[in-house]
Amino acid sequence: MNLARIAIVAVLLEVAMNHGRAAEPPESIVLKGHTESVSMVAWASDGKAVATAGDDRTIRIWDAVTGRQTASVTGIAREGYGGPVVAFTTDLKVAAVSYWGEVTIRTVPDDKVMVTIDPILDRGQKSAFRPDVFAMAFSPDGKRLATAGSVAAVGGRHGLPGGIVIVWDAETGKIVHKSDRLSTAASSVVWSPDAKMVAAGTSGAGGELQEAGEVWLWDAETGKSLHTFRVKPETKYGEWASAADVAFSPDGKRVAAPVTAGSRGSPAGIIIDDVGASVRVWDLATGEDTLPVKGLRASVGRVVFSPDGQQLATAGADNVVRVWDAETGRELAALSCPDGVGVVAFSPDGTTLAAGTEDGSIRIWVVPAAN
């Protein structure tokens, strides 16, 4: 039995022995291989493997029990500024890779490119803004790919780069449908568990531009807009509020978004009062929302529901992964990392949590039991 497996078994035993009693957060298992920031972590639907992607332009597959790296794909994007955006199908056998205006859909781990997509619909239009793709997600059956990003033309009333969400046929690369132009860039996109809806969050704007971020939901088959939620009902001069991510509850009845808000004291954009972050959850049947997580003093970039819908996990700029009660907002665990956390994901059975960090490591914890 290797050291990684011994460590995981030890943590599992400790959690089992302390179930129902308050305990210190468990130590993480650390997977190392990436040489730059990890931007994507995905579990296989059977829980047996974990796929990661990073700014080092590699995809790596790990055995979820032993922590051993079982496969890697290098050179998934050409060298240049920033790193690629990556999405995986639920079986981890196919990946979509976006980098500077090109999306490729390829097999893993043999790296055969099946489809190439040009996601920039207004390419060549003269504009001060460079359109791009900021997030992608495969439908649960892997047959469609949703991309979220910006367009060259302006979107909102302030002349900001407009946002767009496009659903593509993953086998042909053809557009199934696309959203109307959004007021600001779409920074996240996700499918509902039953694949009937697509949701996206927009980044909003601050300073002199009072454009709060929004959460949009569409019918996945027709592209018809179903819901729009502003992450902050009203914004005053100098205030800003963004929705960096969006997540569906497992039953598809709720949607959550991390909201980072603050205020700026001058057009130059000097932050004088950071009012912190929260996570809002909307009931799709009633449109009502709550603030189950609030009062954080650092921005929250990622949010995900546990498979049973009872917990939320967030990744914040304070280098901490936090686990929350999804109904009450009570903090259940604070899992520290030595560097910034870019992505977080629950295992399919909800017992384990994985996070990708800026130092290139993947940290895995057994989820502490609620008391």
Number of strands: 30
Structural class: mainly beta
Mean pLDDT: 86
Q: Alpha-carbon distance between the termini?
A: 32 Å
Task: Kindly provide the radius of gyration, computed on alpha-carbon positions and rounded to a whole number of angstroms.
Answer: 20 Å
| Estimated share of beta-strand residues | over 45%
- Poorly predicted runs are 1-23, 266-273
Number of discrete helical segments: 1
Largest sheet: 6 strands, antiparallel
Helix content, binned percent: under 10%
What form results from the Cα inertia axes? globular
What does the model show?
This protein has 371 residues and is mainly β. 4% of the residues lie in helices and 48% in strands. It has 1 helix and 30 strands. It has one helix at residues 3-17, and strands at residues 29-31, 38-43, 49-54, 58-63, 69-74, 85-88, 94-98, 103-107, 113-117, 133-138, 144-154, 161-169, 175-178, 186-191, 197-202, 214-219, 225-230, 239-243, 247-248, 254-264, 271-273, 277-283, 289-296, 300-305, 311-316, 320-325, 331-336, 341-346, 352-357, 362-366. Strands 18, 19, 20, 21, 22 and 23 form a 6-stranded antiparallel sheet that branches. A 4-stranded antiparallel sheet has the order 1-30-29-28. The chain has a 4-stranded antiparallel sheet with strand order 2-3-4-5, with no helix packed on it. A hairpin with a 5-residue loop joins strand 2 (38-43) and strand 3. The longest helix is centred in the first third of the chain and has 15 residues, at 3-17.
What attributes characterize this protein structure?
mainly beta; globular; six-stranded antiparallel sheet; about 375 residues
